[in-house]
Specification:
alpha+beta; Rossmann fold; 8-stranded mixed sheet; 14 helices; cytoplasm; Peptidase_S9_cat; serine-type endopeptidase activity; acylaminoacyl-peptidase; omega peptidase activity
């Protein structure tokens, strides 16, 4: 049967009045019978039984789908193509060349990852719509692309939830920030628009049918550039859904020379070359943030610029009944973050909570009665454990719900290790907060009962290496999950009255497994610390032997590797390498005593742990102990440079990204406290601290440069020209010393910052790294 021809004949018989109608018309068309079904909850949606997707039930859309390649294959009994096809199979490292490395990179780099989600509940209580925002590398254009997807969730008679895709993915890369109002009736978008080579920021407001307004923020000229991401960024609808709260740079006078002839008031002469301190790495254009509100109906912008000049506000949310705003304020000297409440009527500010702690992520319960936020110790090592604090908004009384855990027992809950709470983290009754936290070498989902302080682990699938909560709506939890052999996919869980999740349902039926990869978490107990452990995740090609091993310690040093989908480890394995991701003592997710045990011992304890893990892994049957490689970035590069200096005959090759090599000369970094605290020189750091000569000697003794004369390992350096975290001079110093010693070395420099995460940079680096490793495996 020719579906399109039969459908066209049938439509012509019915006359023009039927062409845009739903259900009754297409149900009577013989060409659509058997594979097309109605969706009871929405007369405008149809469901294809063969392709398992939904779409708008217009006759034109149905005809278009019926002739699609995907539908034709499904009608013939063929399954639709999975997101991850069988990836390029290589016959060992010897076969690697630029062309097949590039082909492999293209294949794996196109895997998207969910970044955000919004849930809209149906009025009948039997359906929900899940909107998800995804990010994917566009290697051709050298940028991250964004797209959104929509899925309809339906409950069957047994109350089992299933999902159907609605339409196709839609690119939304120009949408920098997006926020839905609480009811789901309105959507706000900060859009990037390029005209005549100039980029502008436009604020847009939409209802469910059309665009309501579009505001050119540059033309209004009420403030500087809106903060698009990072520490300060906010984008929040008011409870009344008539205003939007966001963060932008404070409007500044135009900088000009003393000799400028203009007399305009907006020009400030003599400031052309005046230095202004920014907020550092990833915030180089952020100097003085201000809170702003825009009225949806009048487009009037109000800048809340009457706060103290030494406070930089961010992470702002509306107070209940929109009587004020709550925000985190950062002081410039010292770098301390406090929680502030600004009340509109009295034009006054007040602090909330403990002013001696660093506070972030304020979140209100749906009824506005309860505020929660994260707080941690001020000073000391970065990424310490957080406390979850509950605040009764009426009385402003606070209570610590989850405290730090110094020494967890075995694999029990180690404490809270996360950078921020989900924007929507409360269940419908306001009694439970749902969040993701680092738990040893994984990220897990937990539910925290605010009334009893009880913690329930909601992620119970051991094959998953990383769970990230995207949003919570009533009793529905949306999360993105993945593993080192499974691509990111979105699941929805239903939270029950017993403080648990009944089941997790994937919104897509695709098989997300990445073929040919195995991973294991190895646990170590150092002999000198009986109550502490550390872990390393071994990732290998399945059923392969004689594998070269890439030992990879993380940066930080107080961060960690998770066992979720990661581009480089998976690519390395597909190229024929095994990878060892080392979470040495000092990594987050293992308790506070473990994390702080590294302070004052960098260059010793962490080097010992990495080498211990490497030597144990080298004894495994699938690993060739004569083909050991080490790789790392930042503090991981620090450890790699230490390893090739302290164990020069153990490794065959090395590659480092923006490594720290000499603590004593690490001037100019945007985190000057780091070297003082981690080397054990100064614990109570302040910006007025100046290291003494004995302090600099102690820093030198903990640095890789102390051992550089021992290095014989060929080393590749990958450096960012715009790195203000670890100045490029650090890596160049080690590189030039190795060249002078006759050690094979090579250096690539990129127009990027510390993370070296630009799409084109990331791609070029990988090819260079693999070719370097291959060169010295022979």
């Amino acid at each position: 049967m020719n579906d399109k021809a039969d459908a066209d004949k049938w439509v012509m018989k019915q006359g023009p009045k039927y062409k845009q109608r739903y259900r009754k018309e297409w149900e009577e068309c013989p060409a659509f019978r058997g594979w097309l079904a109605p969706v009871a909850e929405n007369a405008c949606i149809a469901f294809c039984k063969n392709c398992k997707i939904t779409f708008t039930a217009k006759l034109s859309d149905i005809r278009s789908h019926s002739t699609s390649r995907k539908h034709q294959k499904a009608m013939q009994g063929q399954l639709p193509r999975k997101r991850m096809s069988t990836v390029l199979r290589l016959q060992g490292i010897e076969s690697l060349d630029v062309s097949n490395i590039v082909s492999l990179y293209r294949e794996i780099a196109r895997v998207p990852e969910a970044r955000d989600a919004f849930v809209h509940l149906g009025q009948d209580g039997q359906s929900l719509t899940v909107h998800t925002l995804w990010e994917v590398r566009d290697v051709e254009q050298g940028e991250q692309a964004l797209f959104c997807r929509h899925h309809l969730g339906l409950f069957d008679e047994q109350n089992k939830l299933s999902f159907q895709a609605v339409g196709h993915p839609q690119e939304c890369s120009s949408e920098i920030l997006t926020a839905f109002s609480q009811s789901g009736s309105y959507k706000a978008v900060l859009r990037k628009v390029t005209k005549k080579g100039e980029t502008k920021q436009m604020m847009e407001f939409w209802d469910q049918n059309m665009k309501l307004d579009s505001v050119d923020l540059e033309a209004v000229n009420a403030h500087g550039k809106v903060h698009e991401s990072g520490t300060f960024s906010s984008f929040s609808w008011s409870n009344s859904e008539n205003q939007l709260l966001y963060v932008a740079e404070k409007k500044q006078p135009k900088r000009a020379s003393y000799f400028c002839r203009t007399e305009k008031e907006e020009v400030e002469k003599g400031t052309e070359f005046l230095h202004r301190d920014s907020w550092g790495e990833c915030h180089m254009e952020h100097y003085q943030p201000v809170l702003c509100t825009i009225n949806v109906y009048s487009s009037a912008i109000n800048v809340l610029d009457n706060m103290p000049e030494d406070i930089s506000p961010g992470q702002a949310v509306w107070a209940p009944e929109d009587v004020g705003v709550l925000f985190v304020g950062w002081e410039g000297h010292p770098w301390k973050s406090r929680l502030y409440y600004y009340e509109f009527e009295t034009n006054s500010y007040a602090t909330i909570g403990d002013t001696n702690k660093s506070i972030c992520s304020p979140r209100f319960s749906p009824d506005g009665n309860t505020l929660v936020y994260l707080q941690s110790e001020f000073g000391g090592p970065h990424f310490q454990a957080c406390q979850l604090v509950k605040c009764c908004w009426e009385t402003k009384q606070t209570l610590i719900i989850i405290d730090r855990i110094n020494t967890p027992v075995g694999n029990e809950f180690p404490g809270l290790y996360l950078n921020a709470l989900p924007q929507n983290c409360f269940t419908g009754d306001g009694n439970t907060v749902v969040l993701s936290t680092c738990w040893h070498s994984k990220w897990e989902v937990i539910g925290v009962n605010l009334n009893f302080g009880s913690i329930t682990k909601l992620s119970k699938d051991e094959t998953v290496g990383c769970w990230q909560v995207l949003t919570v709506k009533e009793n529905f939890i949306v999360a993105c999950i993945s593993a080192l052999n499974s691509t990111p996919h979105v699941v929805v869980g239903t939270f029950t009255e017993t403080n648990d999740v009944r089941s997790w349902t994937a919104i897509e039926p695709d098989d997300n497994k990445v073929s040919g990869i195995s991973w294991y978490i190895l646990q170590f107990s150092p002999p000198d610390e009986s109550n502490m452990i550390f872990e390393a995740t071994l990732v290998t090609p399945k059923n392969e032997t004689d594998l070269p091993l890439i030992v990879w310690p993380h940066g930080g040093p107080h961060s960690s590797f998770h066992a979720g989908f990661q581009l480089y480890p998976i690519l390395f394995v597909k190229c024929g390498f095994a990878v060892l991701l080392v979470n040495y003592r000092g990594s987050r997710g293992f308790g506070e005593d473990n994390l702080k045990s590294l302070v004052g011992k960098i260059g010793q304890q962490d080097v010992f742990d990495v080498q211990c893990a490497a030597e144990v892994a080298a004894q495994r049957d699938e690993i060739n102990p004569d083909k050991m490689i080490i790789f790392g970035g930042s503090h991981g590069g620090f450890l790699a440079c230490h390893a090739i200096g302290q164990f020069p005959s153990f490794y065959r090759a090395c590659a480092v990204r923006n490594p720290v090599v000499d603590l004593s000369s690490m001037d100019g970094t945007d985190i000057p406290d780091w070297r003082c605290v981690e080397s054990g020189v100064i614990q109570d750091y302040s910006t007025s601290c100046v290291p003494e000569p004995k302090d600099l000697e102690q820093m030198w003794n903990k640095s890789p440069m102390k051992f550089v004369k021992n290095v014989r390992v060929p080393t590749l350096f990958l450096l960012g020209k715009n790195d203000v975290r670890v100045p490029m001079t650090q890596g160049m110093k080690f590189y030039k010393t190795l060249l002078a010693q006759g050690v094979s070395s090579q250096m690539y420099t990129y127009d990027d910052n510390h993370a070296l995460s630009k799409v084109n940079v990331e791609a070029d680096m990988f090819v260079n790294i693999v070719l370097w490793f291959k060169r010295f495996m022979n």
